[in-house]
Amino acid sequence: MYPYRLYTITRFILLMLFINTVDVFCAQDAVEMFKLGMKRHDANDCPKAIEFYTKAIILDSTLARAYFNRGTCHLKIGKPDLAEQDFLLTITYDSLLMDAYYSYTVSLLYGNKHKQALPILNKALMIEPNNAPLRNLRGQIYAYLGDKQSACNDLSITKGAGDKEGNGLFDKICGGDTLKGEAFSLPWPVDEHWRVQNISEDSTFSLMEFFHDNEQPEHWTEYGAMMTLRDIRNANFKEFSQMIYQDFKQRAPKATMKYIKEDKKSEFPWLILLLQAPSTVDHKQPESQLWYIIQGKTALYSNFRAIKKATLSKDVINNWSSFFRSGTIIEK
Fold first, then answer.
1. Burial grade of 39 (CB within 10 A; 0-12, 13-18, 19 or more)
2. CATH number of the 180-332 domain
3. Is residue 5 predicted with pLDDT exceeding 80?
4. Domain ranges (residues) in the chain
């Protein structure tokens, strides 16, 4: 009987070893190891997940997602210094992984490294300027460091784009009478697939440019822009519209201008202006623009949509005008 029992026990031990190591034997390469790490990660077993992610990295030292997931686990189990290293390696091997910039920043904040976090967010927002979570996070860091103006510049952009978190943070950080200025909020229609292509700003001027998802600055059918001219009060709309017109004529010598509607008596006076041209010098195609200019208490807001058509129909003018008029002045 003894040999039989020894045989049985040996089989049992081998079976248990097989069960415990079958995953490893099945993992033939870094991707398989990474998948095993994700399986343990999903089961909230971060220590084991870290083991698999580390094995994946040993097999492929450029596997950015393995660094990112391992960093996420390190952060979860209270090791922000190790997480910081992982997230840095993540963006080293995949500079377009925006979640890594966010997590990298969070890991830095655990160590009160607020100033060191700003260059990380600056780099990320240069790549993806319309990333609301990153911009909101930078705004909060600016506020923590005492730079309220920069904080509110960031948060006014996300609030103006219709971001709920940005709206709440703006009201919390930038509300009250102590902050000078205001912002113009105009969420662009999601169903029209607009995206923010570029944001440029300084202490006196900001520009936010919009394109459709499938279009680029070099090749577009429709284009939108929102401009803020800070510290401009009681602007002369006629003079300002003439400046816009003359600037357009540099590109379209045969352009025409028409005033569509104006309200000088409103709390925030506004003007809608139409520019149309049969052709432009740069892209050799027709172009029409509808402008909405509104005077705030501390800034002048100039917004427009352009399309490569020689004229705009009444329906389009009415629709675009209604869209612009849906915008609101946010007083800080």
1. middle
2. 3.40.1000.10
3. no
4. 1-128, 180-332
